[in-house]
């Protein structure tokens, strides 16, 4: 029967869990003749390389977000890339969080840039700072002001598909002549631009 090695096993599981969360990689520990998980020699080096790869992936994603937005002139539109985004009172992790947003794809307006930080305005007019890794360039919109009608084509007499309540968020595929092509969880149609707040211009 294989012997249990609780102390070593806990340490390995924590390392593999960190790798899985950080880079969404799958890794498995090998077993030696004792039946215990081993981390030495080549296997230890491979795990260190995996940790380094995970760190580089995170750094690369941040650099890509920053690079994609660095050439833009403020103000410009962005959207939340995470379902848990913290707005801070200043452009640093040292500043306290003023709000926590749990709405991926929520549109925000970037009004100021400082290094890897962006001062943003949310649909309610609240302003604060977010790290660039929390944002993406994908254009989105949120229904504001009342019920919005989603129609089959960009015309007021087109067939009605859905009625969208205030607060519904969707991804924009483009806007023209007062109408926007909107995708809400796979449901696609056209909504009057005046009913949306976001990247409609």
Can you give me a brief rundown of this structure?
This protein is an alpha+beta fold and 201 residues long. Helices cover 24% and strands 35% of the residues.
Folded structure, characterized:
The chain has 201 residues and is α+β, with helices and mostly antiparallel strands. The protein folds into three domains: 6-70; 76-138, Roll (SH3 type barrels); 141-198, Roll (SH3 type barrels), CATH 2.30.30. The protein contains two helices and 14 strands, in the order H-H-E-E-E-E-E-E-E-E-E-E-E-E-E-E. A hairpin with an 8-residue loop joins strand 2 (85-88) and strand 3. The longest helix is centred in the first third of the chain and has 30 residues, at 41-70.
Estimate the strand proportion: 25-35%
Q: What's the domain count?
A: 3
Estimate percent helicity.
10-25%
- Could you give the distance between the termini? 68 Å
